[in-house]
Specification:
Elements: H1 4-12, H2 17-29, E1 46-48, E2 51-53, E3 57-59, H3 70-74, E4 80-86, E5 99-102, E6 107-110, H4 119-128, E7 134-139, H5 148-159, E8 165-169, H6 184-201, E9 208-212, H7 218-229, E10 235-238, E11 259-262, H8 266-279, E12 286-289, H9 295-304, E13 308-311, H10 313-318, H11 321-336, H12 342-345
Length: 351
């Protein structure tokens, strides 16, 4: 029997990418996308930050910016879902067109610019949902805000009571000056203020993660690792989109401005992930993101040091059935290599 996406995917790809995404979210909200039975494999379960993940495959931020379909996506077999990025005030984002399929490359370029409905709408939706399944929130800053830390403090205050984890996003290439916050002095100050805001916001604060760029120098990575190990952060997400353009891209859209995601990002993001695992000495949980399109890709991230993985771009080309396939393949690969538990495989390729 054909997968729903086998039927709907070609139709959706006839639309502009942003319009296709809007139609997909509308279908999920309306309950028109059937749920999928999650892969029930004990070897895939992992416990981090006092949270029990049934499987390590998560939905990356960017798909459900406004927390409209997080439960519907959990129903597609994801082990967790990350909403956002969310800014304190509603934001229209950059002018259209701002989202491009690079179909020949299995990739996407976006310059969305943190378009979202703002903290008020997202907080209300997260508060109203039943707390079943793990949902995190990715925090950004408004484009015109000069005191970036103040926007992250506002996001933490609004969403900490309703989120299972929070992410400080300082790595999108589509907000001017944002990536400069990854510098050591700026990052130390930001993390300090964010941690204090988190301690004020919740009696039992959710874990606080930092999402970093793949376009980092060795010195940048060392600084980030040292800031992370100094306290205040509970994990790192590696990585966001790249401003680089690897050789061999074939799509006519390859020169578009914005962040590149999907298959061409896999090697770079996995190298950075492995280096961050080494620099943090395996002491902080890492989430591996960038170019995952198969169980083998996810397993490579885990062996490089990821305790969890996330994907988004591959869904555009393969549909949500990919989530179940990745989890089945992960369980098979763990068994093949003699790992009874996912946690035992983390970083095994770096040892």
């Amino acid at each position: 029997m054909p997968d729903l996406y086998d039927l709907a995917g070609p139709l959706l790809r006839r639309f502009d990418p942003e319009r296709a995404h809007g139609l997909t979210v509308a279908a999920l909200k309306a309950g028109l996308v059937p749920g999928r039975a999650a892969v029930a494999e004990p070897s895939l379960a992992i416990r981090l930050w006092n949270l029990d993940f049934a499987n390590p495959v998560g939905l990356a931020a960017g798909f459900d910016k406004n927390a409209e379909v997080c439960d519907a996506m959990l129903g597609q077999g994801f082990g967790f879902v990350e909403v956002g990025s969310v800014t304190p005030r509603p934001q229209a984002g950059n002018p259209r067109p701002r989202l491009f399929r690079l179909s020949e490359d299995g990739a996407v370029i976006n310059r969305m610019g943190f378009n979202n409905q703002g903290l008020g709408s997202v907080a209300a939706r997260l508060e109203a949902r039943p707390r079943r399944g793990i949902v995190g929130a990715n925090l950004g800053k408004n484009k015109e805000t000069e005191d970036a830390a103040a926007d992250y403090e506002a996001g933490i205050a609004a969403l900490a009571p309703h989120s299972d984890y929070l992410v400080i996003n300082v790595s999108s290439p589509n907000t001017p000056g944002l990536r400069a916050l990854q510098g050591r002095a700026q990052l130390e100050a930001l993390v300090g203020r964010a941690r204090a805001a988190l301690d004020r916001a919740a009696a039992k604060p959710p874990p606080l993660l930092l999402k970093i760029a793949p376009d980092l120098t060795p010195e940048d990575m060392t600084d980030i690792a040292q800031v992370a190990l100094a306290g205040g952060l509970d994990g790192l997400i590696v990585s966001n989109t790249t401003i680089g353009r690897p050789d061999g891209l074939r799509s006519a859209h390859r020169a578009e401005t914005g962040g590149l995601s999907g298959a061409p990002l896999f090697d770079l993001s996995t190298r950075v992930l492995g280096e961050m695992w080494r620099l943090t000495e395996g002491r902080l949980p890492l989430v591996g993101v960038g170019g995952i399109a198969s169980g083998e890709d996810a397993y490579a991230k885990i062996r490089a040091g990821a305790s969890l993985v996330q994907l988004y771009s591959a869904l555009i080309y393969q549909g949500t059935g990919l989530v179940v396939r990745i989890n089945r393949d992960l369980a098979r690969l763990l068994a093949r290599d003699g790992f009874a538990r996912l946690a035992d495989a983390v970083g095994s390729g770096r040892r």
